[in-house]
Hints:
mainly beta; 3-stranded antiparallel beta sheet; 8 strands; 6% helix; 38% strand; globular
Amino acid sequence: MSENVRPAIEPTEISQGYWDGCREGRLVVQRCTACGTLRHYPQLLCPSCYSGAVEWHEIRPTGTIYSYTIARRPFDTGWKDSAPYALVIVEMDDGVRMMGDILNVDPDAVQIGGRVMVEFEEMPGQGVVPRFRLAN
Length: 136
């Protein structure tokens, strides 16, 4: 096995719907059916009302960079060939925050407030994952 292989994603019962949506090219998050709160990452209980009633809800694949960091040294050998790269926290247009990397951009060009969109990419050993791209 190559030392540059990224760790496999192992969906759980709680996160399976999210990964199914990614495979279908749809960005879905949990929506509490008791109070309507959208949430990401997938969780067992609603952080607003503590209900366990949930459904998967598709959100817009666009958002604004809330925060970022530039990884100049990869945290794992699977990202060795990508360094340096930008890791961003994005405030999605529907209100949830998501974390990911940005594709095909000089990390020094990333700025708070920048607009991004999600693209889904098949990653060897990981399946289809959402990644961000700067919007025009």
